[in-house]
């Protein structure tokens, strides 16, 4: 690893050569690109440094860098951001470089990396590099490994990326608040040999959760467990982009969990093997087939498979209350009550009031119920056959024939070959076989006895 003194000498020489100030630190701060869009950006092919196969961040982007005397330099800006959670709802979050989560950091095993971190938050912060093996003083636990980064200051982290794998970054300063506000990002360290662990499409996202009152914009930071927005990269269905792959592509999906509960992530139509965690790669002999992988709190998982089944496959958290949005939480059960007119009247008095379906909740997916502004319905989203009745941690994995190698654009809904869709039976329906009824014959009207002065007989 290059010593700090060598680095200062190198950058001073560069700075002086360019006729700039001799103070290496100031001259060395690289640009901090920012992203304004919550859409999935195309993979960022490396423009300098060692070659690798870039990942695709779901509803996110990768941070450009510059090479400086053998070091890969990134600039993260911790700052308040506005994130669209799904069309119709925005949240005031904290993040990095314009978005929450922050940009994905991509580098190569053996890279010497230098992160400039500028704090534009209203309070101090740090950055912890989760899963990365590094010198103790670079681990980012405020008070333990370093002083907190004060408001307005820039700190520098320098270390070597010793192992390829799947990691994340987040503050280790006022953690409960800063993570509840959305401060986190993904790290991918690619293998030194770009021909190792090659896949055709490599998707990454973080699993996070917020508690934002219907009609509100700012997360409640003291919530412990009862979150009402279950998100992937701070997006909720129908705001999560679809994962588009070409038939027979080898696919890797990597996920990290910074919520306060586990998430059993389930993919339809394929089986896969878990190939890596934040602790490293899993030997082939230790892998077994799955269709659901449990994503533990504070952990990451990478899984891989060949996408050999064309179609539109559901991809979601299997906790069913994690596939619904704000309005599915803390609403009274009103099955059997027609409340459409009532809802319209109450909402004038109680802006966050929401009626629940009188025959269960399915009708909520199809019906336009009055909602407070900046609020996501409990479940929504339209598919080719009608309402999807989903929210939160749900999206669609689209496998298609004949896509171009780097084409991630939405191919529309799957066109099923004829005779391959479930259909209604229109013939005669025979009487169902029943076990013989052995209960005594009814004896007449039901009488109800109630306690009280008139029930004494
Ligand atoms: Cu979940």
Map the helices and strands.
Blueprint: H1 4-17, H2 24-28, E1 56-57, E2 66-68, E3 71-86, E4 89-96, E5 105-108, E6 112-119, E7 128-130, E8 154-160, E9 165-170, H3 175-180, E10 185-190, E11 201-210, E12 229-232, E13 243-246, E14 250-257, E15 263-267, E16 272-277, E17 280-281, E18 289-290, E19 292-295, E20 300-306, E21 311-317, H4 340-349, H5 362-366, E22 380-383, E23 386-390, E24 394-400
Parallel strand pairs: 1-11, 3-6, 5-10, 11-14, 13-24
Antiparallel strand pairs: 2-3, 3-4, 6-8, 7-9, 9-10, 11-12, 14-20, 15-19, 15-21, 16-17, 16-18, 16-20, 21-24, 22-23
Task: Explain what the structure shows.
With 457 residues, the protein is mainly β. The chain folds into two domains: 31-193, Cupredoxins -  blue copper proteins (Immunoglobulin-like); 243-400, Immunoglobulin-like, CATH 2.60.40. 9% of the residues lie in helices and 30% in strands. The chain has five helices and 24 strands. The strands form five sheets. Strands 1, 11, 12, 14, 16, 17, 18 and 20 form an eight-stranded mixed β-sheet that branches. The longest helix is centred in the first third of the chain and has 14 residues, at 4-17. It is globular, with a radius of gyration of 27 Å. The N and C termini lie far apart (93 Å). The relative contact order is 0.12. Residues 1-26 have low confidence and may be disordered. Copper (II) ion binds at residues 230, 263, 317, 319, 322, 393.
Give the bound compounds: copper (II) ion
Low-confidence stretches: 1-26
Total strands: the figure is: 24
For the record, the CATH class of the largest domain is Mainly Beta
User: Which strand-content bin applies to the residues?
Assistant: 25-35%
**CATH fourth-tier homologous superfamily of the largest domain:** Cupredoxins -  blue copper proteins
Shape: globular
């Amino acid at each position: 690893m290059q010593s700090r003194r060598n680095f200062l000498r190198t950058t001073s020489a560069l700075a002086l050569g360019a006729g700039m100030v001799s103070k290496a630190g100031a001259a060395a701060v690289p640009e901090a690109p920012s992203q304004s869009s919550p859409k999935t950006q195309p993979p960022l092919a490396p423009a300098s440094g060692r070659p690798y196969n870039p990942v695709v961040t779901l509803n996110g982007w990768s941070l450009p860098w510059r090479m400086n005397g053998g070091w890969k330099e990134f600039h993260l800006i911790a700052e308040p951001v506005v994130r669209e959670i799904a069309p119709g709802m925005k949240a005031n979050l904290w993040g990095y470089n314009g978005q929450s989560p922050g940009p994905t950091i991509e580098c190569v095993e053996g890279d010497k990396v230098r992160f400039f971190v500028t704090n534009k938050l209203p309070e101090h912060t740090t950055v912890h590099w989760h899963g990365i093996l590094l010198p103790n003083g670079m681990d980012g636990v405020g008070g333990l490994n370093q002083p907190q980064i004060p408001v307005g200051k820039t700190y520098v982290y320098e270390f070597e990326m010793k192992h390829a794998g799947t990691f994340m970054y987040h503050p280790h300063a006022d953690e409960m608040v800063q993570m509840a506000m959305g401060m986190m990002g993904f790290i991918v360290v690619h293998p030194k040999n770009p021909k190792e662990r090659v896949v055709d499409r490599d998707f990454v996202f973080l699993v996070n959760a917020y508690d934002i009152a219907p009609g509100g914009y700012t997360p409640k930071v003291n919530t412990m467990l009862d979150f009402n927005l279950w998100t992937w990269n701070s997006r909720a269905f129908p705001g999560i982009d679809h994962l588009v792959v070409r038939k027979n592509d080898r696919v890797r999906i990597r996920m990290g969990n910074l919520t306060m509960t586990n998430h059993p992530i389930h993919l339809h139509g394929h089986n896969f093997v878990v190939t890596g965690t934040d602790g490293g790669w899993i030997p082939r002999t230790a892998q077994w087939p799955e269709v659901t992988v449990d994503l533990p709190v504070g952990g990451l998982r990478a899984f891989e498979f060949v996408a050999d089944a064309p179609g539109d496959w559901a991809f979601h958290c299997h906790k069913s209350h994690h596939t619904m949005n704000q309005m599915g939480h803390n609403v009274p059960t009103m099955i059997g009550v027609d409340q459409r007119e009532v809802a319209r009247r109450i909402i004038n008095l109680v802006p966050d009031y929401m009626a629940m379906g009188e025959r269960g909740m399915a009708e909520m997916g199809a019906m336009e119920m009055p909602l407070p502004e900046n609020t996501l319905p409990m479940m929504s989203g339209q598919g080719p056959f009608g309402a999807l009745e989903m929210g939160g941690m749900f999206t669609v994995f689209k496998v298609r024939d004949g896509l171009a190698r780097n084409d991630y654009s939405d191919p529309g809904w799957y066109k099923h070959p004829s005779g391959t869709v479930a259909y209604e039976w229109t013939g005669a329906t025979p009487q169902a076989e029943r076990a013989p009824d052995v209960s005594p014959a009814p004896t007449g009207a039901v009488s109800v006895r109630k306690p009280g002065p008139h029930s004494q007989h």
